[in-house]
Amino acid sequence: MSLTFCNIHFSQQPEKVVYISNTLMKSLKLSGKKNIQLRLGNDTMLAAVKPVKKSGKHLILGSAVRSGIHVPSSGSIYILNQDDESNEFQLGPLIGVLSDGPTNSSQPFASRTGFIKQLLREGKKKCYIFAFTPRDINWHQETVNGYFLNESGSFYRRTVPLPDVVYNRLPSRKAETSASIYQLRERFARRKIPYFNWGFFNKSDIYRLLENDNTVNQYVPESYMNPVPERIKDMLERHQFLYYKPSGGSLGKGIYRLIYLPKKGYFVRYRKGNGNVLLRFSNFSSMMRMLQSRHGRSLESYVIQQGIRLIEIDNCPIDFRFHMHKNGNNKWDVVGIGAKKSGRGSVTTHLKNGGSLLTPEQALSRTFGSRSDEVLQNTKNIAIKLAEAIEFHHQHLLGEIGFDLGIDQDEKVWMFEANAKPGRSIFSHPSLRSEGKASVEHILEHCLYLSKFRRRDSE
Predict the structure, then answer these.
(1) What is the mean pLDDT of residues 420-447?
(2) Fewest C-beta in 10 Å: which of 20, 270, 271, 385?
(3) Cα(first)–Cα(last) distance of the chain, in Å?
């Protein structure tokens, strides 16, 4: 296999011809060849080869070639030859970022538009990258009407072949569970187009994946899906406090903190509107009646989870968001860490619920002093083990995971949640902006890995 970085130009010549500089001819071992098969995505075309005297590595496409394989733009790109005996040369990689949003808008991907523009801006340096919605795919012609980014930072549209890799950033669980999205994913799978991440995680599924894995199950709090009242009562008596949360929830919505103090009764904390609510019940039955009145008698799709006494700052619990990525070598890296301090009286540490964001160094140094580096490194190692375990048991491609991890007052690490499409709010912290850039770079490098465009030179 050979992989070469070169400069693509367009010619007005209508013939099916590619003009290739002498340096590039030599790199691609094309001396004496009259024709090559040129490919972008699954579009291919046979084109005549004509050498040109031009210093550097340059590929100039006649207009018939450009339109025939839907090359979206000129610029620097890789050219791949999988087999030295083959006459086929592939341009790319062609990477598609799948999302959704309002039609006919300057923000076609709603609140994700800024992040998608950042991906496209950085990706242009090493690949053809575009964003698209499910509506933009023409399965009959196997093309996509994609959103590309111009130099001024505005979107423009180009029709291109189906991508070599799809990075899934569809925004909602509801959309992902629809029949049309299920069919979309299956169509990409049938064409052997790598698609990551497959979909949002369900909390109960992740707990179930890990409960019998002895390498990591010690880091997962005791958790049960759809618990009967007897289970909740037993766990409260053993742990004194629990978290009761929707299996498919996010951003801390719908979470209850249940507390049992033997001589004082049962207490429930939850978020309502912009405030925190604390209710006291004299007995277990009255507490359960309140929960059942709010969510139905069966309390389905809820998970009960052992509460953990976390380390604190100013009497406010601290947990950590670990942003994990696969790198260009298909290994898990810890790319960004934010420490989240809960607001007073809040059920969770979510920033929208009054929490505040610190760097892990700020949080841990106040708790562990000179040992903070050692504690942080141990937590990073555990985060990588957890990511590897989830990937091992999960049946689809994973490229990123967001973990909510806690450290208890005995220094034990706990995993509360794993998210397949983690939010990016931690990267808004001034001290974490470089990690936000590294996150984008990891996404792009992993796309290159999945596309089989392995970087060997970047001249």
Answers:
(1) 92
(2) 385
(3) 17
Q: How far apart are CA 81 and CA 85, in angstroms?
A: 9
What's the sign of the alpha-carbon dihedral 105, 111, 116, 118?
positive
Rounded to the nearest 10°, the torsion over CA 278, 283, 287, 293 is -130
At 225, list the tokens.
């899906």
| Structural domains of the chain, with CATH | 2-92 (2.40.40.20), 94-196 (3.40.50.20), 222-306 (no CATH), 309-451 (3.30.470.20)
C-alpha to C-alpha distance for 274 and 277, rounded to whole angstroms: 10
- 210, two tokens: 């890990």
Residue with structure tokens 């604390």? 278
pLDDT band of residue 344 (cuts 50, 70, 90) is: low
Band the pLDDT of 287: cuts 50, 70, 90.
very high
Whole-prediction pTM? 0.88
Residue 458 has pLDDT above 70, yes or no: no
pLDDT surpassing 70 at residue 456:
no
**What mean pLDDT is reported for the chain?**
90
Taking the C-alpha atoms of residue 382 and residue 182, their distance in angstroms, rounded to an integer, is: 33
